[in-house]
Amino acid sequence: MTIYIEKETEDTLNFDYEEIINKVVIQSLQSENFKHDIEVNVILTNNEEIQCLNKQYRGKDAPTDVLSFPIIDDSEIGDIKTLDEHIPVHFNMETKELLLGDMIISIEKLKEQAQEYGHSEERELAFLVAHSMLHLFGYDHIEPEEEEIMKSKQNEILDKVGYSR
């Protein structure tokens, strides 16, 4: 498994963010009984950069906390459980890993939301990574029933890594 973490901002996090990201990614894979080795990219940025991406890709001219860019579009496969059919197309031949996708997290938003919700920045980072991983697996929260599934799965992941509410 390869988790690339890039920090593209001067904003700082005063804790071991790489350890939290790794733990949550691994637990997300375990919670989904995901058997493939994966490659995922995590980019830590600021509000200005994430706002540009949010506008470009979602048509929303505002900063957001996290953006997820699955390599395998859920409209392409319908459900991550049918992934085996698509591995040859989305497979890094050098590393023998499935290219899962990219997540982009605004450190500024992470800090704002941690304060707003009254929990630690560590917990907020864990939540954003779990949330994004579920999007990379093909989950969404547009419909109320989808949102309940995502909340349940997020809570399970966060409980298992020690960042429950």
From TrEMBL:
Gene3D superfamilies in the record: Metalloproteases ('zincins'), catalytic domain
Binding site for Zn(2+): H131, H135, H141
Names of the cofactor(s): Zn(2+)
Localization per Swiss-Prot or TrEMBL: Cytoplasm
Leader sequence segment: none
Homology family: Belongs to the endoribonuclease YbeY family.
One MF annotation (Gene Ontology) recorded for this entry: zinc ion binding
Entry-linked InterPro entries: MetalPrtase_cat_dom_sf_prd (IPR023091), YbeY (IPR002036), YbeY_CS (IPR020549)
One biological process term in Gene Ontology: rRNA processing
Role, per record: Single strand-specific metallo-endoribonuclease involved in late-stage 70S ribosome quality control and in maturation of the 3' terminus of the 16S rRNA.
Any Pfam family hit: YbeY
GO CC terms of this entry: cytoplasm
Species classification: Bacteria, Bacillati, Bacillota, Clostridia, Lachnospirales
Name of the featured protein: Endoribonuclease YbeY
Organism per entry: Natranaerovirga pectinivora
